[in-house]
Amino acid sequence: MDSAVCASLAVRSYKAIFLHFQYGQRAAQKELECFHKLVEHFKPEKYFVIELPFFKQVGGSSLVDERIEIEEDVTLGIPSTYVPFRNGVFLSIATAIAEALEAKRIFIGVNQVDFSGYPDCREEFIKAMQKTIALGTKIGEELKIEAPLLHLSKAEIVNLGLEVGAPFHLTWSCYRGGEKACGRCPSCKLRLKAFAEAGVQDPIPYEL
Known about the structure:
Layout (H helix, E strand, L loop, with lengths): L1 H12 L3 E6 L5 H15 L3 E6 L2 H5 L27 H15 L4 E3 L15 H14 L7 E3 L7 H11 L21 H13 L10
Parallel strand pairs: 1-2, 3-4
C-alpha cells in the first residue's frame, strides 16, 4: 500500500524504475502478482524482480520462517515480523541499480508514525543510509532517498493515496499469503484501521 502511494508520487516528477524483492516472505506469490499488476498500471521505464533467498535461509523473522508464529496483537518492542536489516539490504540494492542506470532518486515507503517498531523504518536510519550513499558511490550526494510517507499516519497515507490516485485495489499488505487478506495480522489491522479513519472502504477482500 505504502509503496503504491510512493510510486504514484514518483511518477508525477520522474521516469520510474520499479523494484520488487522476493525474499522468501510468506506472501511472496501474492505480492509478486500485485507487483506485476502495478507495473501494468504505472508502465515504468524498467522494472526488476530481485531474488534474495538468503533471508529465508538465515531466518530470524516470522515473515520468512513459518516455524515462528506471527503475532496477531501489537506488543511492545520489536515484533517477530521484523526481518533483520531488510530495508538496509533493499536500499543498498536500489542504490546499485540507481547508480548503474544513472537515476537520481530512490523512493521508499517507510513510515515511523504508524509502524510496527521496525528500527529500519526510522528517520535516523534513512539519514544514515543517505550518508552511506554519499560516501560509497561515485554519484555521491546527487542520489537522494525520498521517504515522503515517513511522518504521516496510516490514515494520512490513505488520504494522500486517494488524492494522487494510488491504485489501492492492486495492493497487498497482509503478512500471510492467500486469495484474501487475513484481516488478523498487525499489518491487516493497521491497514483496516487507516481506511476506517479515512472514512473510505478498503477495496481489497478480507477473510473476516
